Every structure is written in C-alpha cells, then in structure tokens.
Amino acid sequence: SQRTLVLLKPDTVRRGLVGTVLARFEAKGLRIVAMEQRHIDAAQADAHYAEHVERDFYPPLRDFVTSGPLVALVLEGDQAIEVVRTLNGATDGRKAAPGTIRGDLALSNRENLVHGSDSEESAAREIALWFPHLA
Ligand code: ATP
C-alpha cells in the first residue's frame, strides 16, 4: 500500500465540487488518511511547487493556489500515486480524457481542480510538507 498527497485546489472549493471529487477517490477504494482545508500563503505555495518556481507559468499558478481555501489530503491504497494521477487525467482539462476528474469537470490548463504527487519521492516530500506528523 502507498500514500500520496492530493490537493483539491481553490477552484474545487469555489465551485462546490469538494464532495464530488472526494467521492471519486473514495469510490475507487482509496482511504483518507488525513484531510484539512487551508488557505495557504505564497511561501507554502513556493515550497509545494519548488520544482516550478522558475517557470513562466508559475506566478499566475501561485496567485491561483493562494486565492482561496483548498483541501489537502493524504490518500492511501495499492499504487495510490499512479491511481490518483490516472483518475485526475491530463494536466489540461480541455484535453483530459472523459471519465477523468479533469476531463469531466475542468476546462483550463491552470484551474484543473486537483493535484496528485507524481512519484514516491514527491509523495514523501509533499506529505512531510503538508502533514509533518505523518512523515
Ligand atoms: P499536478 O502537479 O498539480 O498534479 P500535473 O502534474 O498534471 O499537475 P505539472 O506539470 O506538475 O502538472 O504542473 C503543475 C500545475 O501547474 C498544473 O496542475 C497546473 O495547475 C499548472 N500548470 C502546468 N502547466 C501549465 C501551463 N502551461 N499553463 C498554466 N498552468 C499550468
């Protein structure tokens, strides 16, 4: 069994889709290990997106993820990292496959509802950042 860090980004909260998105992860069989709604500041955004801070898409991404509350969670299950990314779908909601969270519910490359850790190393780093008591 594996753990992964998931964010329901501020668009999910703003659009009233927290329950809808969470239901998909739960229905898949993933267990919620930790969950908390938070309104993060720029420093937390920079820490989470450390690998992207120099990219040209990052300043608007930072503004977006700090624009309102988000829900951070740790999900657990067999191959949870890959399973979550499959459920999330491609980064760009306009291109993501139907049946995925982004494919069904998002129409943007930036405001794409969810984040999921992309590797075991990222998951360990992100879980330690968001939920230090679990690290
Ligand atoms: P995440 O890491 O959030 O699960 P991802 O792995 O699909 O998503 P990354 O390439 O890691 O995507 O980019 C992180 C986030 O930055 C994306 O989820 C999206 O919100 C934003 N982003 C990525 N590329 C672009 C872009 N070209 N234009 C605008 N926003 C972007």
TrEMBL record:
InterPro entries assigned: NDK-like_dom, NDK-like_dom_sf, Nucleoside_diP_kinase, Nucleoside_diP_kinase_AS
Chief localisation class: cytoplasm
Main EC class the enzyme belongs to: transferase
Record: residues binding ATP: 9, 57, 85, 91, 102, 112
A GO-annotated cellular component: cytoplasm
Keyword Repeat attributed: no
Catalytic activities: a 2'-deoxyribonucleoside 5'-diphosphate + ATP = a 2'-deoxyribonucleoside 5'-triphosphate + ADP; a ribonucleoside 5'-diphosphate + ATP = a ribonucleoside 5'-triphosphate + ADP
Keyword Ribonucleoprotein assigned: no
One GO BP: CTP biosynthetic process
Nucleoside diphosphate kinase-like domain boundaries: 1-134
Active site: residue positions: 115 (pros-phosphohistidine intermediate)
GO-annotated molecular function: ATP binding; metal ion binding; nucleoside diphosphate kinase activity
Cofactor(s) this protein cannot do without: Mg(2+)
Localization: Cytoplasm
Keywords recorded for this protein, A-Z: ATP-binding, Cytoplasm, Kinase, Magnesium, Metal-binding, Nucleotide metabolism, Nucleotide-binding, Phosphoprotein, Transferase
Free-text function comment from the UniProt entry: Major role in the synthesis of nucleoside triphosphates other than ATP. The ATP gamma phosphate is transferred to the NDP beta phosphate via a ping-pong mechanism, using a phosphorylated active-site intermediate.
Subunit and partners: Homotetramer.
Similarity comment: Belongs to the NDK family.
The name this protein goes by in its record: Nucleoside diphosphate kinase
Species lineage: Bacteria, Bacillati, Actinomycetota, Actinomycetes, Propionibacteriales
Gene label: ndk
